[in-house]
Amino acid sequence: MSSSELKHRFPESQSPNTYDDSLSSNLMAIRATCSSANPINYILREQRLHCMLLGIVIATIFFLLFPQSSSHDHQIVTTLTKPMKIMPRMLDQQIVHYPSQIHHRVGRIPLGLKRKGLRIVVTGGAGFVGSHLVDRLIARGDSVIVIDNFFTGRKENLMHQFGNPRFELIRHDVVEPILLEVDQIYHLACPASPVHYKFNPIKTIISFLSLSPSSLTNVAGTLNMLGLAKRVGARFLLTSTSEVYGDPLQHPQKETYWGNVNPIGVRSCYDEGKRVAETLSMDYHRGAGIEVALDNKLHVRIARIFNTYGPRMCIDDGRVVSNFVAQALRKEPLTVYGDGKQTRSFQYVSDLVEGLMRLMEGDHVGPFNLGNPGEFTMLELAKVVQETIDPNAKIEFRPNTEDDPHKRKPDISRAKELLGWEPTVSLRKGLPLMVQDFRQRIFGEQKDTSFVE
Ligand SMILES: NC(=O)c1ccc[n+]([C@@H]2O[C@H](COP(=O)([O-])OP(=O)(O)OC[C@H]3O[C@@H](n4cnc5c(N)ncnc54)[C@H](O)[C@@H]3O)[C@@H](O)[C@H]2O)c1
């Protein structure tokens, strides 16, 4: 070994021998301290106790100030009573708000063990209901892919999500197949207002059924989405409608009621389209004649949605709430069809979105009525609109439209019991939020998209 190497290893004033001597004398001193002294004495000496106490105080302050590692104030729910069916990315932790389940606030979760967001497709996500659903899913921490052909939907409904890395928008018609790797599919794509679904009735049905160019069997819309769900093992939720009850002979309507639908009327493209979509979904759920993975079933959920209103509805789409609000704002008479004594139930959109998400996350296939059981005649609704917007608004009567149902009111006992869900926003509370949005869109007033729901 050269002298330069030795110099490098030992301080200049120390020879190798003196270094060994000092090391061994230090070791002996430490051994003497440890073996002879009492451990309490050891802690009390040289400020050790002070340092320990100081460390404990600092750690306590830190954990009080930062109880959770996540910036999102999410609650992680562990289902203790009924474990959910395993979904590819759902594993054992769900982020939902179920009053019936037990909530555990978990403290710091080591990086890499945090709940993974789901990847979710929302067809029709640029529409009225879809865009609100997208907002809730993204706020929950999931990644959302919207599929929409913009027939009635608008990019404006989603523009506030552009640039969010967990959001994607695909212009695509659901009658064409598409392949995406996802955990859940909310299937909303379908024109929902009479003005739009009557515009191209054949297309309305096609959104649910059509002839596949390859096999010439009934395939498309709903079938495409069911096929996608099956292929990738995703859970599938169909947004059906109270229109499946037609002009109901039972009141209020329970899910067990089979309905009273005119199969050849002008509304049939919508009503029958949705009824067949339900049939297909149930056939897929039962796994009839379909090769499937895992437990031989596709996890399907069916929601029967009753009249829903809120910000981002299409203006002038022929639906009664949007009609009345737009007419009152423009100082036009409110058009009431028939004698105005027909009844409807009006649900605010945030209540619906909550119901859809609970249905998707829950254990029950359905169908579930999702609607507000508060029942209003058209004349009563017109009165609420007058009170909210313009007490002097006039009412104009017109002949009723074909096959207009006389009564509509959901029985929501099933959703209450099995989903722990019921609407919380009354018409008088929800309507002003919609009016604020319509006023901005009709008169171009300054935009405020923060709908307080
Ligand atoms: N809003 C209600 O009161 C109500 C009541 C019952 C059922 N529903 C159901 O809820 C769903 C959403 O309704 P909404 O009120 O948001 O309607 P909407 O018209 O605002 O939204 C429907 C969306 O689907 C898109 N779409 C239509 N056909 C498509 C196709 N072939 N491919 C891709 N995208 C397509 C439209 O562009 C639009 O963005 C619909 O399935 C509707 O039948 C709604």
Automatic annotation (TrEMBL):
<dbReference type="InterPro" id="IPR044516">
    <property type="entry name" value="UXS-like"/>
</dbReference>
<dbReference type="GO" id="GO:0048040">
    <property type="term" value="F:UDP-glucuronate decarboxylase activity"/>
</dbReference>
<dbReference type="GO" id="GO:0070403">
    <property type="term" value="F:NAD+ binding"/>
</dbReference>
<protein>
    <recommendedName>
        <fullName>UDP-glucuronate decarboxylase</fullName>
        <ecNumber>4.1.1.35</ecNumber>
    </recommendedName>
</protein>
<keyword id="KW-0472">Membrane</keyword>
<keyword id="KW-0456">Lyase</keyword>
<comment type="similarity">
    <text>Belongs to the NAD(P)-dependent epimerase/dehydratase family. UDP-glucuronic acid decarboxylase subfamily.</text>
</comment>
<dbReference type="InterPro" id="IPR016040">
    <property type="entry name" value="NAD(P)-bd_dom"/>
</dbReference>
<comment type="function">
    <text>Catalyzes the NAD-dependent decarboxylation of UDP-glucuronic acid to UDP-xylose. Necessary for the biosynthesis of the core tetrasaccharide in glycosaminoglycan biosynthesis.</text>
</comment>
<dbReference type="GO" id="GO:0032580">
    <property type="term" value="C:Golgi cisterna membrane"/>
</dbReference>
<dbReference type="InterPro" id="IPR036291">
    <property type="entry name" value="NAD(P)-bd_dom_sf"/>
</dbReference>
<feature type="domain" description="NAD(P)-binding">
    <location>
        <begin position="122"/>
        <end position="432"/>
    </location>
</feature>
<dbReference type="Pfam" id="PF16363">
    <property type="entry name" value="GDP_Man_Dehyd"/>
</dbReference>
<keyword id="KW-0812">Transmembrane</keyword>
<feature type="region of interest" description="Disordered">
    <location>
        <begin position="1"/>
        <end position="20"/>
    </location>
</feature>
<comment type="pathway">
    <text>Nucleotide-sugar biosynthesis; UDP-alpha-D-xylose biosynthesis; UDP-alpha-D-xylose from UDP-alpha-D-glucuronate: step 1/1.</text>
</comment>
<keyword id="KW-0333">Golgi apparatus</keyword>
<feature type="compositionally biased region" description="Basic and acidic residues">
    <location>
        <begin position="1"/>
        <end position="11"/>
    </location>
</feature>
<dbReference type="GO" id="GO:0042732">
    <property type="term" value="P:D-xylose metabolic process"/>
</dbReference>
<keyword id="KW-0520">NAD</keyword>
<keyword id="KW-0210">Decarboxylase</keyword>
<keyword id="KW-1133">Transmembrane helix</keyword>
<feature type="transmembrane region" description="Helical">
    <location>
        <begin position="49"/>
        <end position="66"/>
    </location>
</feature>
